[in-house]
Amino acid sequence: MSSAAAWMEPSLDVDKLSYEIFSILESKFLFGYDDHKVFLPSTPATPVAAGLRHSSVGKVRILSIDAADGILAGAALVRLEATLRKQSGDTTARVSDFFDLAAGSGAGGVLAALLFTRGPDGRPLFSAAEALRLLAKHRRRLASGAQRKGLLGGILCRSGGLLRRVFGDATLRDTLKPVLIPCYDLATGAPFVFSRADAVEADGYDFLMEEVCAATCADAAAGAAAVEMRSVDGRTRIRAVGGGLAMGNPTAAAITHVLNNRIEFPAATGVEDLLVVSLGGAEAPAAPGKPAAPLSAEALARIAGGAQADVVRTHPSP
């Protein structure tokens, strides 16, 4: 895998208003929570049982990033990471050190992948500041042509290029913590969630991170072609369109995963055992306009409606 520093610009100015907005997040997550154990890093992901390990300190901490503006979410994470470093006293701490699971859709899925994929040194591939600089530096390039409606369209909707240089041969198994990144599979007509837990259990569910990011960012409403991809063993084929269409807010999927996964999270028996930080607008998908072939407006509406129904059916009752 390539060094993250090679893709960075020296600095990036985030406007003052953004920092004021994200200070609200900071106060809610850090100072509105009275358990000081939140500042302790979660348990390192050392292989046990099926190659997984749960956090043994406090609540299960979930980071969920919507399929919204990656720059705004990235700026929030930069501020959060800086404050976590200050509060914990660890100047090298990363966002992934303080969360037990990350879920992201669309641009949020790319951020989750950047922050939770293991780098050559065994630490996260990117810090929050590095991830934000990457998105800002390549913003125009990544949102070119017909994909300009989506921040991470264009080249991110194809395998190779920038994604290949960033992630190299890393797969879902190479994440430091459990990660969930959704897309919609046109082959099966149902949402598909890329999951580290599934990847560890079977080769047929392990995919290259570059293709996972391309799949969750494929904006069918803006005319992007579906992403054709296979698992690393070639057994599972997916024809993916974006996670934002199927699951714009992946928080429900993350909560369901934790509460129904006794191998990774045996101590989580109810929502009171969870601490969730959700970034994004959490808005339902907008009514699609006339997209480029092969998907019609009716097909997009059917996908969005069916996907949301699937999410409701899998969400546990209170």
Summed up, what is this model?
This protein is an alpha/beta fold. The protein has helices spanning 16-31, 70-88, 107-116, 128-137, 139-142, 161-167, 196-201, 209-217, 243-247, 251-259, 297-314; strands at 60-65, 101-104, 179-185, 190-195, 227-230, 237-241, 274-279.
Describe what you observe in this structure.
The protein has 318 residues and is an alpha/beta fold. Helix content is 36%, strand content 12%. It has 11 helices and 7 strands. Strands 1, 2, 3, 4, 5, 6 and 7 form a 7-stranded mixed beta sheet that branches. The longest helix is centred in the N-terminal third of the chain and has 19 residues, at 70-88. It starts with 15 loop residues before the first helix and ends with a helix. The model is unreliable at 1-14, 44-56, 142-155, 282-295 and 307-318 (pLDDT under 50).
Cα distance spanning the termini: 42 Å
**Count of helical regions:** 11
Mean pLDDT rating: 74
Q: Evaluate the radius of gyration.
A: 18 Å
Characterize the largest beta sheet: strand count, sense, and whether it forms a barrel. 7 strands, mixed
Listing every helix as H and every strand as E from the N terminus to the C terminus, the arrangement reads HEHEHHHHEEHHEEHHEH
Q: Which secondary-structure class do the elements indicate?
A: alpha/beta
Coarse shape: globular
User: Helical residue percent?
Assistant: 25-40%
Number of strands: 7
Beta-strand content: 5-15%
- List the uncertain runs: 1-14, 44-56, 142-155, 282-295, 307-318
